[in-house]
């Protein structure tokens, strides 16, 4: 799971990145408010850990923008310890509020609780045309026929289906599925898409995974082309 930490203090930021990374999370860290907001809007995170006192944009401003565009869980981690600060953060839409200095064990427990809530909220079944994906049972079928996928193929298809109609860049796909930075010299994404198509698209007349030249891929239902005379 991916966590974004927006924290301007270098010592605290490094501590959080190291500790959360060792706890099994992929962590991005920003020390500037505007940069943190950009990352939160341009990427898909499972949780945001947000300070209040930040350069550029403060945490309140970031929270206001995020709640207009995203339902990503947000935990305020800040030295602002007054009751009115806690109330303000929660009224803006934060899911939790923890005051510095803090116990990393307590922070980790709160993060795990928020992430569990997010998993519960996530759709357990995803359907696109005649393609069905069962998240909990990790099963995929089309026209009632079960399709065997590897773990990465399942993760790739889940990403494409839950963001139906969105053009996803190779960079985003590589980050979400492989947790890696995309290298233009590698064709790992294209190869994975080709293998996935061979299983979920090629045996069927109506194709659902489409290439957007120069950008990436989109998963959506389109009218079948007319049959050749």
TrEMBL record:
One of its GO terms (biological process) is regulation of DNA-templated transcription. GO terms for molecular function: phosphorelay response regulator activity; transcription cis-regulatory region binding. Residues 123-221 bind DNA. Residues 123-221 form the OmpR/PhoB-type domain. Gene3D superfamilies: 3.40.50.2300, 6.10.250.690, Winged helix-like DNA-binding domain superfamily/Winged helix DNA-binding domain (1.10.10.10). The keyword DNA-binding applies. GO terms for cellular component: cytosol; protein-DNA complex. It holds the Pfam family Response_reg. Keywords: DNA-binding, Phosphoprotein, Transcription, Transcription regulation, Two-component regulatory system. InterPro entries: CheY-like_superfamily (IPR011006), CusR-like (IPR006291), OmpR/PhoB-type_DNA-bd (IPR001867), Sig_transdc_resp-reg_receiver (IPR001789), WalR-like (IPR039420), WH-like_DNA-bd_sf (IPR036388). Transmembrane segments: none annotated. The modification 4-aspartylphosphate is found at residue 51. Residues 2-115 form the Response regulatory domain. It comes from the Bacteria. NCBIfam families: cztR_silR_copR (TIGR01387). This is Response regulator.
């Amino acid at each position: 799971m991916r966590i974004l930490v927006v924290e301007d203090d270098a010592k605290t930021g490094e501590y959080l990145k190291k500790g959360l990374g060792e706890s099994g999370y992929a962590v991005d860290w920003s020390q500037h408010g505007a940069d943190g907001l950009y990352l939160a809007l341009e990427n898909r995170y499972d949780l945001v850990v947000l300070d209040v006192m930040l350069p550029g944009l403060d945490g309140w401003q970031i929270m206001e923008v995020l709640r207009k565009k995203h339902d990503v869980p947000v935990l305020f981690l800040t030295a602002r310890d007054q009751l009115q600060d806690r109330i303000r953060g929660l009224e803006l839409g934060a899911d939790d509020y923890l005051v510095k200095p803090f116990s990393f064990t307590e922070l980790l427990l709160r993060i795990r609780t928020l992430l569990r809530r997010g998993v519960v909220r996530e759709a357990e079944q995803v359907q696109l045309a005649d393609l069905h994906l069962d998240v909990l049972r990790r099963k995929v079928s089309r026209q009632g026929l079960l399709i065997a996928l590897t773990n990465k193929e399942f993760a790739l298809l889940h990403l494409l289906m839950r963001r139906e109609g969105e053009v996803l860049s190779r960079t985003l796909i590589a980050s979400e599925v492989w947790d890696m930075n995309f290298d233009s010299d590698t064709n790992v994404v294209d190869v994975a898409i080709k293998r996935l198509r061979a299983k979920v698209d090629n045996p069927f007349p109506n194709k659902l995974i489409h290439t957007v030249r120069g950008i990436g891929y989109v998963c959506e239902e389109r009218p079948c082309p007319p049959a050749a005379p």
